[in-house]
Design brief:
Elements (H helix, E strand, L loop, with lengths): L1 H30 L14 E8 L12 H15 L7 E8 L4 H14 L2 E3 L10 H4 L13 E2 L6 H4 L22 E6 L1 H10 L4 E7 L3 H16 L3 E8 L9 H10 L3 E4 L3 H13 L8 E4 L6 H7 L7 E4 L11 H10 L6 H24 L6 H8 L26 E6 L2 E6 L13 E6 L5
Parallel strand pairs: 1-2, 1-3, 3-4, 6-7, 6-8, 8-9, 9-10
Antiparallel strand pairs: 5-13, 10-11, 11-12
Helix pairs in contact: 2-11, 2-12, 9-10, 12-13
Length: about 450
């Protein structure tokens, strides 16, 4: 009896191994099957992607030029590496020109010809109906997968088919509440108060031309205040203002003897703020000058000159200077070109890596011809810890929760140097870096 039981168990094990081998063989066969046209934007040989971004605009010429450059470079990299899902990538750049009409038309065009949108950076994308209701090859309103790098409008921030690599600070479950809940990273200010200067108080300067963009910037300002910076004023300035437009901000700093100044908009705002501060006699070394990734730009150094020396910049991605520590970062620089890389381009490369990972997950599960918009959206909804091969702080893409990770660079002798954490290739990812704010920024 015992011998019979052993034989039955052994037979079961053998049959299980055979079934597993057969399933694996079938999957390999499916993955290796001749590619087919499985959805809009997918042919047997090509996956078409769109990049919708504000680039050629009189208000801010070349604003998000880094995004299409990065996605096109990523396609070149992938194609040289053998492609995705048995196909090569092709990229359609559609300029949204800082126009709500052009942004919406760009999405309509992408819906009709492209599989997904990657690297989206359209500040006026305030209507996503065409994105959400976009029909797939079978005629079902599956939606157009969107992997943006900048989302200022609530419509896109909370879109069910948008998966930003840098999620909005807004908790979308509270978007219709008064007040709303926002998430802010306070790690940088905590570091300043611990290692640079205590009892920080000062101003925040944000660009007020577009309400949705102003809201995103004000969350950063309120985050610094939540971390302990006493506000000497939140000052809105137009993105088109000359240096003299920053005179009131600098006067506020002089009146309050501010030792902290945060700029949350384009790098030119910090350049003008600091030049005006020098002009009005503020000792640059007495102030903690705080900025985010827009200031991590060689044009910031070129235009600012000695006036921006000592500038602090908070990053969520590894700096370009650390390409030796990260192969994915090195590939971005190699394929985009040293003279064309910037912070927004790095974000777009990271979004492209997210697209790659989601496609590979679909292919692993069902083979090359399982790739559809519906399958891609399903894969994106399962990504809970994405780090772009270590180039990015781990982020819960599925839940649209920003990463608590950050690092700080400082401009010294005209060169950006890592300040904190000191070890190259690392981030500070303590959960306590992220706090929740209850404030009404969506009201009239």
């Amino acid at each position: 009896m015992r011998q019979r039981r052993i034989m039955v168990i052994a037979l079961g094990v053998v049959l299980g191994l055979v079934a597993s081998a057969a399933a694996a063989a079938a999957l390999r066969t499916n993955q290796g099957a001749a590619p087919q046209a499985t959805d809009v934007g997918i042919t047997p040989s090509t996956i078409r992607l769109a990049v919708v971004a504000d680039v050629e605009t009189p208000l801010a010429p070349g604003l998000f030029r880094g995004s299409p450059t990065a996605v096109q470079a990523f396609a070149q990299y992938i194609n040289q590496s053998g492609g995705l899902a048995g196909r090569h990538l092709a990229v359609d750049f559609i300029d949204s020109h800082l126009s709500s009409g052009d942004a919406r038309n760009a999405i309509i065009t992408a819906c009709s010809q492209d599989f997904a949108v990657v690297g989206t950076a359209a500040l006026f994308l305030n209507n996503v109906d065409d994105m959400v209701s976009c029909k797939d090859q079978a005629g079902a309103a599956t939606g157009l997968p969107d992997l943006p790098i900048v989302t200022t409008e609530v419509a896109e921030q909370c879109s069910p088919v948008s998966f930003p690599v840098n999620p909005s600070q807004l908790d979308c479950t509270t978007k219709d509440q008064r007040p709303q809940t926002y998430r802010a990273n306070v790690g940088t200010v905590k570091y300043f108060e611990r290692a640079v200067k205590k009892n920080l108080h000062g101003i925040s300067v944000y660009q007020n031309d577009l309400k949705s963009a102003a809201v995103s910037q004000l969350v950063l300002a309120r985050g610094s205040e939540a971390a302990g910076v006493k506000s000497d004023g939140e000052i809105g300035v137009s993105a088109t203002a000359p240096q003299s437009g920053y005179t009131p901000a600098v006067q506020a700093m002089k009146n309050k003897s501010s030792n902290y100044a945060l700029s949350t908009g384009q790098f030119a705002a910090m350049v003008y703020l600091r030049k005006e501060a020098d002009l009005q006699g503020i000792n640059r070394q007495s102030v903690v000058w705080d900025c985010f990734s827009p200031c991590y730009d060689k044009k910031f150094v070129q235009q600012g000159g000695p006036d921006v020396e000592g500038q602090y910049v908070t990053l969520a991605q590894l700096p370009f200077e650390e390409a030796k520590q990260n192969k994915t970062l090195a590939n971005y620089i190699k394929f985009a070109g040293q003279d064309k890389i910037d912070g927004f381009g790095a974000y777009a490369w990271i979004a492209s890596v997210l697209f790659r990972d989601a496609v590979n997950a679909v292919v692993k599960q069902g083979g090359n011809n399982a790739l559809t918009r519906k399958a891609l959206l399903g894969a994106l909804r399962s990504v809970t810890s994405f780090n772009a091969d270590g180039m990015w702080g781990p982020t819960n893409i599925a839940a649209h929760i920003p990463s608590p990770c950050f690092l700080i660079m400082q401009l010294r002798n005209g060169q950006f140097k890592r300040l904190y954490p000191s070890k190259p290739g690392t981030f500070d990812c303590k959960p306590s870096n992220q706090v929740q704010l209850r404030t009404d920024l969506q009201g009239g």
